Amino acid sequence: METVNRVLNFVFDLLLLEFLGLPPFWGLASLSALFAVGALLVFKRLSNQKGIRAAKDKVMAYLLQVILFQDDVRTVLRAQGKVLRYNFVYLGHNLVPMVFLVLPFILVVMNLDPRFRFDPVRTGEPTYVSVTLREGTKLTLLERANLAFVRASYQTAFVHIGLLGLLIVLKESWTARKRLELAARTRDLGKLLETARGAAR
After folding, report:
1. Which of 46, 94, 129, 156 is the least buried, fewest Cβ under 10 Å from its Cβ?
2. Shared-domain flag, residues 62 and 106
3. CA-based nearest residue to 120, from 23, 19, 17
């Protein structure tokens, strides 16, 4: 299996060589079109085209019978049963080439998925790297210092995020309190104006 994977990787690397430097869409679209044409040729060669055509004609004929004889319940039920039966016949004719195409499709997906599933890290773009060390791995003094620095940086970042969140909460509460005080003053001023208008009358 490992040898098969190496050969397939080499083949796909050659197929995608022309698309290096281009957006991923062009390589994926070109390979998809290539394998789609190949699948159609294999399907046409391995499938029973006469049987498929006959089954489709039968389905269409019995569907037409359902439309024409809507008043005859027995005829409609019999025609629907025939439609179901020839649908299974149609699927059976399509099943043979699909069995031969399943394995190639799996191999194609296995090789395209790791190449197009993830967006590569661009130059200057921040990213996270997770490292798991084996038990008993010995680190040099410089490596320990680097890990300690990274850990301290994360702790400092979490502290800063927490303080920023606290400041936002305090600011929002202060703003809400000022709005309430302003609303209360506005209400008192409104009552004072109403009293003055009453006295003037």
Report:
1. 129
2. yes
3. 23
